[in-house]
Structure formats: C-alpha cells, structure tokens
Amino acid sequence: MRLRLCLMLLFVAVLPASATAQQRWAGHWVNVDPADYAMFVLDIQPDAQVHQLMPAPQFQAKYRVEGGHLVMRMADGSADSSFALRGDSLIGRGPDAMVRIAGSVVEKSGVRGTWRAVATAQGNAFMTLRSDAEVVLEVGVPVVSSWLGDTLRLTSAQVPSAAYTMRQAGDTLHAVDATGKDHRFVRRPWGCLGISSFDTPAPECR
To answer: Tens digits of per-residue pLDDT, 38-90?
Structure first.
C-alpha cells in the first residue's frame, strides 16, 4: 500500500512539471530573425499542440462588417463579402468556414480577433482581424507535434520529421534543432509579426 502511494505521488509530482513547462510556453511566438523562413511562427496551444506557420503580409486587405457579412477590401480594389458572421463562426461559400479561436477578442463588431479555418486537410490557416482594420493571414501545412520532456518533434507529410530542444530565457523562447541552430522567438499577439512598419498601426502590436 505504501509503495503504491509513493508511486502515485511520484506520478503526480513528475508529470505536471513537463505539462507546466509546455503550458507556460503556450502562445503565439514569432521568430526574431526575419530571414529564418524555416521556422517563422510557432503557435503553442495550452494542450501542447503546435502549429508551425508562415505569415503572409503580402496579402493586403482591410475589413469592415456590413449587413452581417465580413467585407474585405483588397489592395487591388476588389472586395470579398463571402463570409457571413454567425456567432463564433464565419460561414463562407461551400465548405469554407472559420471559427473564432479560444481567447480571441469579442467586441461590438463581432469579428475582431483571430479565426481558424475549419477545413485543414490541405493546410492550416489563421486570419486575424486587427483593431486597425488590417487582415493578417498566417498559414502552414498540417503538422503532428509530440513532446518528450523539453524536446518538441514536428512531423508532416511534406517535410522530414524534425526535433527541437526548447528552453526559455527571459522573454525569448529558444528552439535548438539537430544541427545546433538556435531559432529564437518572442511571444506576440496574433496578427503582430515583429515587422515595425506592418505592426505600428495596430495598438495591440506596440
């Protein structure tokens, strides 16, 4: 009986330490090196699931809400109003739909915050509607993430499996790959990419 109790206490003491580390790292992390395209954005969920993403700042659009629809005005002057706002969902044409991610902003217009595409068979897509009316896309291929202590392994059908040793120093999250390269990240709100000229118009990015 005493042995069983000791094993239970050890189980409770050890497992949460690993979970707590990953929960502490939960958030939207942006690489501080703009040339490090191999690993630009890491979204670490509280349940330790990870999304590896690339921003698409070249996609330039402004948004507004009109008649219950999200209207996006593109840089070339064209407009898209295919998404209808239905509570925490944006319903588009056919299978197109997006859902508001947990913890996203909810305000009077009902659309500000970050939305994730429901259909992820071809890839992951997150769309942030910032307070300055900017539409920010972040996209990536689906990855399977697994943790062993502080080691994160990412696997996808498109690229070989890769392992990273994770550690945090101050406000910087380090992901060291098998070659010893240190990918350095800082936690930023969704839609904030660490590019001064792009982020400055949005108060949440300053």
So the answer is: 678 999 998 889 999 998 877 889 999 999 999 999 989 999 999 999 988 99
Q: What's the DSSP call for residue 77?
A: S
DSSP result, 24-35:
HT-EEEEES-TT
Q: How many helices (H) and strands (E) does the chain have?
A: 2, 16
Nearest to 43 by CA among 193, 182, 176: 193
Number of residues in the chain = 206
Regarding whether 146 and 132 lie in a shared domain, the answer is no
Q: What secondary structure does DSSP assign to 130-159, as a single string?
A: -TTSBEEEEEE---EEEEETTEEEEE-SSS
3-state secondary structure of 65: strand
Clarify whether residues 148 and 161 are in a common domain.
Answer: yes
Rg (CA), the chain: 19
Lowest mean pLDDT, pick from 13-22, 43-52, 131-140, 176-185: 13-22
Global pTM value: 0.83
Cα 34–130–71 angle (5° rounding)? 120
Q: How many domains does the chain have?
A: 2
Rounded Cα–Cα distance for residues 181 and 105 (Å): 35
